[in-house]
């Protein structure tokens, strides 16, 4: 049994498809990152997995339980770090942790012991008796994540846990997530930072416009993307880029203009031949021509940017 099993998940807001036919699995013990640009549908997908949203079609199983039928069984075994922090502002850091442990019926001595260990690991032990409303965003988020770990969840779901944090706070959070994962907790987080996903996750799912465009280990994704998409850079005299660009555009070739260079994208030899034919038939005065090998994050940025521009 996988910790998470999602089949053909669709979630609409009126007629807008925010999550569009997404299927994937997450194995126990995985560190799984869902990567995508703003508006990709990451939070919408996350809310369904966190059992906070039921109005969807398709099948979603967490720890073997159906999200629509067995919410309570799931909730006792998962930790949730949603977009906004779940803390009581007027209570101190420690009071918050003990309060939430109480909800899970953890014995008080055990909760105190665990609070101390976790607060120390995020360098917040000295702050335990200060009310949360005195804390910075980064400090609140550290306490918020510690709160989610108090119940020793099987799976911890986090929606952009490091967004809007400074480098130190973000690093502390990554540290505690790694620790939790090493201790056996499955971690599922969203991020729009390629570096973060690359650094932390065993497996990555990439979303764009509600769809899952790739999933797997970084190596698997890199192999797929590299096979799927190559580009050719053609340099022209500056005043000719636009004119020749239109020829490619009219033939439906995806491209990007950078100063006096056109970058033309293709996925297979037939498309490449089409580009080369156009160059020769139109007698284009080419200054230089180059194929590109690009880093993974650049390719993703381009992939997602292209589709975005297409919608405008
Ligand atoms: N409650 C809602 N009602 C209507 N539309 C919504 C609602 N929630 C999200 N959307 C839309 O669904 C799409 C996906 O939103 P979502 O918040 O899941 O994206 P995201 O990947 O988490 O983006 P971000 O990186 O900005 O957090 C967006 O276009 C958003 O406007
Ligand atoms: Mg979001």
UniProtKB/TrEMBL annotation:
Gene Ontology MF term list: ATP binding; ATP hydrolysis activity
InterPro entries referenced in this protein's UniProt entry, alphabetically: AAA+_ATPase, ABC_transporter-like_ATP-bd, ABC_transporter_ATP-binding, P-loop_NTPase
Similarity field: Belongs to the ABC transporter superfamily.
Name the record gives this protein: ABC transporter ATP-binding protein
Nucleotide-binding found in the keyword field: yes
Residue stretches making up the ABC transporter domain: 4-234
Keywords: ATP-binding, Nucleotide-binding, Transport
Pfam families reported in the protein's UniProt record: ABC_tran (PF00005)
Organism the protein comes from: Mesoaciditoga lauensis
């Amino acid at each position: 049994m996988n910790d998470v099993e999602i089949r053909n998940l669709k979630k609409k807001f009126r007629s807008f498809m925010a999550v569009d036919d997404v299927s994937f699995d997450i194995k126990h013990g995985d560190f799984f990152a869902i990567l995508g640009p703003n508006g990709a549908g990451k939070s919408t997908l996350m809310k369904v997995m966190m059992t906070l949203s039921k109005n969807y079609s398709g099948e979603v199983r967490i720890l073997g339980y159906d999200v629509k039928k067995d919410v309570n069984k799931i909730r006792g075994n998962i930790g949730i770090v949603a977009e906004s922090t779940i803390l009581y502002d007027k209570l101190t850091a420690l009071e918050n942790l003990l309060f939430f442990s109480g909800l899970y019926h953890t014995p008080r001595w055990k909760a105190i012991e665990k609070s101390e260990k976790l607060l120390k690991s995020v360098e917040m032990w000295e702050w335990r008796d200060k009310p949360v409303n005195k804390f910075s965003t980064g400090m609140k988020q550290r306490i918020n994540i510690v709160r989610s770990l108090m119940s020793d969840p099987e799976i911890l779901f986090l929606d952009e846990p490091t967004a809007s944090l400074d480098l130190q706070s973000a690093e502390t959070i990554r540290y505690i997530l790694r620790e939790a994962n090493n201790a056996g907790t499955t971690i599922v987080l969203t991020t729009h930072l390629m570096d973060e996903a690359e650094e932390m996750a065993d497996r990555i799912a990439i979303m764009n416009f509600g769809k899952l465009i790739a999933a797997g280990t970084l190596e698997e994704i890199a192999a797929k993307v590299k096979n799927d998409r190559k580009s050719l850079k053609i340099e022209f005299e500056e005043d000719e880029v636009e004119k020749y660009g239109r020829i490619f555009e009219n033939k439906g070739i995806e491209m990007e203009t950078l100063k006096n260079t056109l970058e033309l994208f293709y996925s297979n030899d037939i498309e490449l031949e089409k580009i080369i034919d156009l160059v020769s038939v139109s007698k284009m005065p080419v200054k230089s021509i180059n194929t590109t090998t690009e880093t993974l994050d650049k390719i993703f940025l381009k992939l997602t940017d292209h589709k975005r521009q297409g919608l405008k």
